[in-house]
Amino acid sequence: MDFYQIITLLFSFLGLMNGLFAAGLFRLKRFYLYGIAGALISCGAVQYYVWYALAYPEYGWAAHFGAYFACALIAADIMLVLPLFLLMMISTVRFIRRYAQIFGAAVMALSLFIGVYGSVDGEMREEAERYTIAAEELPEAFDGLKVAQITDTHIGPYYRNADLANDLERSKAEGADVVMLTGDLIDDIRVMPETAKILNSRAVLFPYGIIYVRGNHELYKDPDYIENELRKTSVKILDNSHVALQKDGALLYVAGVDYPEMRGEGRAELMDRMVHDAFDGIPKDSAKIFLAHHSDFIDAGFENRAFLTLTGHTHGTQFGIFGKPMITPFKYTRGMYSDGKHCGYVSRGSGGWFPFRFDTSRELTIFTLKKK
């Protein structure tokens, strides 16, 4: 059973449960029919989402908005299951049943609205986040250098090559001197040759070009093919290695690590080896920027005295309230972190493989480096 079959079964089950819970809440006869209807709707939404991910190059905006609605239904499925269950249980108390039913109808409508709004707004809106990073070790020659971070583009049906070109040109308009791509560049490798052409043609816009580290989604696809296409360009690939930016005899080092495929025991040791290889040969007291896809590497950036560590991977969880993530599944989930002297940043991502976002917009991040 492959990943998509598992997801289809999972959401069909969620739809079944939501249908049954709704029927129980509203005391509907033949409740099982509502469960079956819920399962079929959820299954159809997932199947449309999967189909569109493969077929999107052949279809226009009508199919694209159909994908928005499918994603909205999937998001609503997740949001509804617990509230509907609780309201169904509460509705067994006769004197508050009517209130539970009214509240349940409101919750269902609100969940669908949030699903639609989040799916459309999540893809349409991208914010520019701007930070100033001051570091004592930064050479005077690099004072004022601007770094653009683009990450988690997941080039495919929802973030396309045209969006990548726009983000690169927007980075130039922001005055960026170098672009740093921190992984999950592409999901649909059918368009990788065009991606490589865009990166190569835009790299000349930036004095220090484009620097890239790999994410987990490249590993899920065809990492060798993606790397071979990138090596035809001027993009600098950091695979547990580093590069030195030079200006007026001064050096600014950029170290980068690959994505650690291993999980469980041995992962920490693997990450340590990767970090060691990336920083090996860099003078201890020099100015360093550290690139990694996974935010778990931020501590390694602190330990190796990188004044700025750039990561992604989490997408900021894609669901937040008042600018904060609803859940924090990682030690470093969203935004800026510091150990008092060094900074680590987790981007919300510039794209995504699932367009739904709520109070967690996509971002292009600009860092202005200052000599302290």
Question: What this model shows, in words?
Answer:
- This protein is of the alpha/beta class.
- The protein folds into two domains: 3-124, no CATH class; 128-371, Metallo-dependent phosphatases (Purple Acid Phosphatase, chain A, domain 2), CATH 3.60.21.10.
- The protein is built from ten helices and 14 strands.
- The protein has helices at 3-25, 31-55, 61-90, 97-124, 161-173, 192-203, 216-220, 223-231, 267-279, 298-303, and strands at 126-135, 146-150, 178-182, 210-213, 236-237, 241-247, 250-256, 288-291, 308-311, 320-321, 324-325, 335-338, 343-346, 362-371.
- Strands 1-14-2-3-4-5 form a six-stranded mixed beta sheet.
- Helix 9 (267-279) links the parallel strand 7 (250-256) and strand 8.
- Helix 1 (3-25) runs antiparallel to helix 2 and helix 2 (31-55) packs antiparallel against helix 3.
- It is elongated, with a radius of gyration of 23 Å.
- The termini are far apart.
Keywords:
alpha/beta, Purple Acid Phosphatase, chain A, domain 2, elongated, 372 residues
SSE topology sketch:
Blueprint: H1 3-25, H2 31-55, H3 61-90, H4 97-124, E1 126-135, E2 146-150, H5 161-173, E3 178-182, H6 192-203, E4 210-213, H7 216-220, H8 223-231, E5 236-237, E6 241-247, E7 250-256, H9 267-279, E8 288-291, H10 298-303, E9 308-311, E10 320-321, E11 324-325, E12 335-338, E13 343-346, E14 362-371
Parallel strand pairs: 1-14, 2-3, 3-4, 4-5, 7-8, 8-9, 9-13
Antiparallel strand pairs: 2-14, 6-7, 10-11, 12-13
Helix pairs in contact: 1-2, 1-3, 2-3, 3-4, 5-6
